[in-house]
Amino acid sequence: MIKFFRKIRQKLLTENKFSKYLLYAIGEIILVVIGILIALQINNWNEEAKEKRVANSYIQSLRTDFANDVILLGNLIASFDKELTKDLALSKRLSSQTSNSDTIAKIARYEFLPFFDPTNELNLNTFNAMIATGNIDLLDRDFAEKIQKHNSLQLSILKASDFNIKISADVSKEYIQKYPLNSPWNSINGQIMDSFWEQTDENKLKIELNAVLTSKIFALEGVNYGRTTLLEQTKKLITEIDEKIKEN
To answer: How many independent structural domains does the chain possess?
Structure first.
């Protein structure tokens, strides 16, 4: 092709057709420019297609993370609800008009467990990777803002949950240092442990059992409220992502 154009130029020059040569040269330059522009446009199309594939990959990965969060949150909420049901039942018995010192001692020694599963995590890997690489800019602005807003909610719920869990755990640690749990793994059991409970100050036990039970119930309710809110928002976001995937 290059040889072909070169022969045309040489022929025009040898025939002294300078004006035609000039027009031809200009035309050739225009063709070269057009070729470059086409090449650039194709490159831009390829780059846009590549960015779209990366963005779609992130969207799919986000959906997977959120779907896993729905399962995780559902399990954690169910676990806390089960624990809360038991503790509210204990609270009801302790608050009953028929409750007495034997009721308190029986619940404290044999039934009440101050601790619960402290698991508090979410699937944040995809979002963190997008932020670290700057690839969140590949998403359209409205969707990126929704993802960032959702991440802010996630972090807020995680922080509030950690706070509530820690408060309850601190109160529980103090409680079990004074009142041993009913556990087969205790180093001391039998008559010695019986004598401990027989000599326990009833008023102190009332105060400290009330503190640890109240703290635990408050933590369970507070954490589950936040997690339920996050669960509903996550489900809504998954629905929006599914619509976006259909559009693509």
So the answer is: 1
Q: How far is CA 191 from the centre of its chain?
A: 50
Q: Assess if residue 221 is contained within a domain.
A: yes
3-state SS class at 231: helix
Residue type, 21: Y
Handedness of CA 62, 156, 73, 176 (dihedral sign): positive
| Tokens (6 digits) for 53 | 């594939």
Note whether residue 122 is domain-resident: yes
Give the confidence band of 12 by pLDDT, cuts at 50, 70, 90: very low
> Distance of CA 175 to CAs 42, 85, 95, 171, Å?
71, 21, 20, 6
Task: Quote the strand ranges of the chain, DSSP E.
Answer: none
Give pLDDT tens digits for 67-84. Answer: 999 999 999 999 999 999
- Domain-located, residue 100: yes
Domain containing 61 equals 56-247
The model's pTM is: 0.81
Report which secondary-structure segment, H or E, holds 88: helix 18-95
Q: What angle do CA 228, 232, 234 make, to 5 degrees?
A: 110
In a domain, 1, yes or no: no
Task: For 208-227, give the DSSP string.
Answer: HHHHHHHHHHHHHHHHHHHH
